[in-house]
Specification:
D-Maltodextrin-Binding Protein, domain 2, binds prephenic acid, Bifunctional chorismate mutase/prephenate dehydratase, aromatic amino acid biosynthesis, Chorismate Mutase Domain, subunit A, alpha/beta, 4 domains, 12 helices, 386 residues, six-stranded mixed β-sheet, five-stranded mixed β-sheet
Length: 386
């Protein structure tokens, strides 16, 4: 068989695969309706386990190894769960309508740009992208009604919490309505033909610089140029057309600016992932069928054991905490505001009771939002069991 002919067959098989994936996605969306009608949760890990075991077995008979089949189905099932969650949430809170205006950091190609695309493809037919130069500008865009939503990075596995965003949340009336995680793969990007030994300037966002600090410490004679976003760094390098100037950012983003990859894996942590939050003017409800997270801030005061007492309230109501972060309160030196993420729905009886008690024993409590958890941990099966 000649190459063209084999490629035609591959293309035709791929077309069939896509059609099957689209059909599977539609079926998953119908499952969501059936589950709501029966008051069942969207995620059913027992079903996923049975499915994976049987698919691994079938795969083996077809010469496909267990790891390959598992990897593909983890992606398919994650998509299926997220599609169902978005549908159920849309029905509960009212769909967004065809057009959604979303504010984010940078322009096309920034990490926030990709996170925005990822989150809203399931939720809006058309996006109006409102690129901003600072976190403050992003929040203001929603507060003033210029944008419907904002996407903000809140923490990263290499650099930790993004304090500027935490501080903005203390004072805004916006609510957290969603979250997502996005892998951040930092690359060194420059114009074609750039030699590593000739680099004299690196352009990057301060968060990116923090996440690549180990790599950057190893360089000498290189000036760091702080940029508003990765897309800003790409634009500077594209404009300069100078082989001594490079940017750090994502490969996909760099490509949009015609930049070539000169190095990969620059982050301090191998698994460099950012968590983003989505904020809006109006709080949402989270369907009972979906795992929810609630984020609130509290000021306990400084009396001995105040924080322990507050956390004990959560324990007494069987509420698990995902994150506890403290930030200074502006104007009150050495006093701290605590940010708490819990795995609970604001509408749950236990959560309502816990918040009532926290309101009683602390000086200040403010709920920042209740939103669907998008942390779809993959179901792991023992491939040998099949
Ligand atoms: O069968 C279901 O209950 C589905 O929702 C479909 C599906 C899948 O995509 O196969 C998705 C999520 C569930 O956790 C289990 C399986």
């Amino acid at each position: 068989m000649d190459l063209d002919h084999i490629r035609q067959q591959i293309s035709s098989t791929d077309k069939d695969l896509l059609q099957l994936l689209a059909t599977r996605r539609q079926l998953a969306l119908s499952v969501a309706d059936a589950k709501l009608a029966q008051n069942k949760p969207i995620r059913d890990q027992k079903r996923e386990e049975e499915l994976l075991v049987s698919l691994i077995e079938r795969g083996k008979a077809l010469g496909l190894d267990a790891q390959y089949v598992t990897k593909i189905y983890h992606v398919i099932i994650e998509d299926s769960v997220l599609q169902q969650q978005a549908k159920v949430q849309g029905q509960l809170n009212g769909n967004n309508g065809p057009v959604c205006r979303v504010a984010f950091l940078g322009r096309q190609g920034s990490y926030s740009y990709w996170a925005t695309q990822k989150y809203f493809t399931r939720r809006a037919e058309k996006l109006i992208e409102i690129g901003c130069d600072s976190f403050n500008e992003i929040v203001q865009a929603v507060e003033t009604g210029h944008a419907d939503y904002a996407v903000l990075p809140i923490e990263n596995t290499s650099s930790g919490s993004i304090n500027e965003v935490y501080d903005l949340l203390q004072h805004t009336r916006l609510s957290i309505v969603g979250e997502l995680t996005h892998p951040i793969e930092h690359c060194l990007l420059g114009v074609e033909g750039t030699e590593l030994s000739k680099i004299r300037q690196i352009c990057a966002h301060p968060q990116v610089i923090a996440q690549c600090s180990n790599y950057l410490q190893g360089l000498s004679n290189v000036k760091i140029e702080y940029c508003d976003a990765s897309s800003d760094a790409f634009e500077r390098v594209r404009k300069a057309q100078d082989k001594s100037v490079v940017a750090i950012g994502g490969e996909e983003g760099g490509k949009l600016y015609g930049l070539a990859v000169l190095g990969r894996g620059l982050a301090n942590q191998k698994d460099n992932v950012s968590r983003f939050i989505v904020v809006a003017r109006k709080a949402i409800n989270v369907a009972k069928a979906i795992p929810a997270k609630t984020t609130f801030i509290m000021y306990t005061g400084q009396q001995p054991g105040a924080l322990v007492d507050a956390l004990t309230v959560l324990k007494q109501h069987g509420i698990s905490m995902g994150k506890l972060e403290s930030r200074p309160i502006p104007g009150n030196p050495w006093e701290e505001m605590f940010y708490v993420d819990v795995f609970a729905n604001l509408g749950d009886y236990a959560m309502t009771r816990a918040l009532d008690e926290l309101n009683r024993i602390t000086r200040f409590v403010k709920v920042l939002g209740c939103y669907p958890s998008e942390d779809i941990s993959p179901t792991i099966v023992n491939a040998d069991a099949s």
